[in-house]
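re: the backbone from monday

yeah here it is again, tokenized this time
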């Protein structure tokens, strides 16, 4: 015949059950966080990776009478800029706008007189 269950044994069983429930909850919570990280972080990266550096509607505000300062007021400071030479060796400026860790880029071109001449969206 089995020994009768004592009050102490039932307390130990209840305590062990309570501990097991706590551990299971922690495992579920950690697993949930891991799953969210595996889904949300790559999803956010993909979403950010494909976004243009600004609303492309802003490009409609640019016209050929605008100086570099005028363009900067509309689009903000470019991510990078450099000087190129045309076929006749005359310098002109190019700007690029790009979000950090993303691909889409907007190129802004200025003519030899420093006026906006064109834009190009590379995605």
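seq for it, each position gets an aa:
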């Amino acid at each position: 015949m089995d020994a009768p269950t004592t009050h102490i044994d039932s307390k130990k069983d209840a305590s062990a059950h309570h501990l097991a429930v706590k551990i299971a909850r922690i495992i579920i919570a950690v697993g949930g966080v891991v799953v969210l990280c595996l889904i949300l972080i790559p999803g956010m990266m993909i979403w950010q990776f494909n976004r243009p550096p600004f609303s492309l509607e802003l490009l409609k505000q640019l016209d050929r009478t605008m100086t570099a300062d005028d363009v900067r007021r509309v689009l903000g400071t470019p991510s990078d800029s450099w000087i190129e030479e045309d076929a006749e060796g005359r310098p002109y400026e190019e700007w690029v706008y790009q979000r950090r860790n993303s691909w889409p880029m907007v190129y802004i071109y200025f003519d030899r007189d420093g006026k906006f001449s064109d834009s190009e969206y590379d995605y």
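The mean pLDDT is 87. Residues 56-122 form a domain with the Beta-lactamase Inhibitory Protein; Chain:B, domain 1 fold (CATH 3.30.1450.10).
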